[in-house]
Write a structure and sequence with these properties.
Shape: globular
CATH class: Alpha Beta
CATH superfamily: Glucose-6-phosphate isomerase like protein, domain 1
CATH architecture: 3-Layer(aba) Sandwich
CATH topology: Rossmann fold
Structural class: alpha/beta
Number of helices: 9
Strand order of the largest sheet: 2-1-3-4-5
Length: 200
């Protein structure tokens, strides 16, 4: 029970330390992007790729935002990585999609990408393409924020309490935070199913 008590206590501490002003700012940026008919490309690898797919569903279905997760196309992803190596896919996908200054990338990552450590180079390359196109860089990341936080002030940082729990907590809080964003009254356009059901 010691581990579980420690884990759940850490969840509470992370929640208390979240920067709500930053989450509000990210929400407002997405509202402005929708008003300007921009697109959001949600980028994640590993568990964050699964979160990206879920977040795209919510942005489209609940908020009416034109959103995409490049990792949803496993054929294109695996073909590009097989032919050109890991790190080539996100940049190529964004360039093919003609990302512009009306659009944004939304990075979901435990570390935010790190060029020096050669970690999450797909994200590092995507950030470079976003910067060249003038697209916004948004995200929910952990640890020191990596390349994502270095290149944008519109990134929510999940604080580290216990470094050995970074991955489960950051990936869990990605879901907590993006759900807070998509259910925010300034973004939510359509009712979600269970909340719309009135029990008899």
């Amino acid at each position: 029970m010691d581990f579980l008590n420690n884990y759940m206590n850490t969840v509470v501490r992370v929640t208390e330390m979240l920067n709500l002003i930053q989450i509000e700012q990210t929400t407002q940026e997405l509202k402005k992007l929708r008003e300007d008919s921009g697109r959001v490309f949600v980028l994640g690898m590993g568990g964050s790729a699964a979160n990206a797919s879920h977040m795209v569903n919510d942005l489209r279905k609940i908020c009416g935002i034109d959103a995409y997760a490049p990792t949803d196309n496993i054929s294109e992803f695996s073909a590009t990585c097989n032919d050109d190596g890991l790190g080539a896919y996100f940049p190529r996908w964004l360039e093919t999609s003609k990302i512009s200054n009306k659009d944004a990338i939304f990075v979901l990552s435990v570390g935010g990408g790190n060029r020096e450590l050669n970690v999450s180079m797909e994200l590092v390359g995507a950030i470079e393409v976003a910067k060249k196109s003038g697209a916004q860089i948004l995200g929910i990341v952990g640890r020191d924020g990596g390349e994502t936080l270095k290149n944008s002030s519109n990134v929510v940082l999940v604080p580290t309490i216990i470094s050995t729990l970074d991955t489960p907590l950051v990936e869990s809080f990605q879901a907590v935070i993006w759900h807070a964003i998509v259910f925010h009254p300034v973004l939510k356009l359509k009712p979600s199913k269970w909340e719309s059901i009135v029990e008899q």
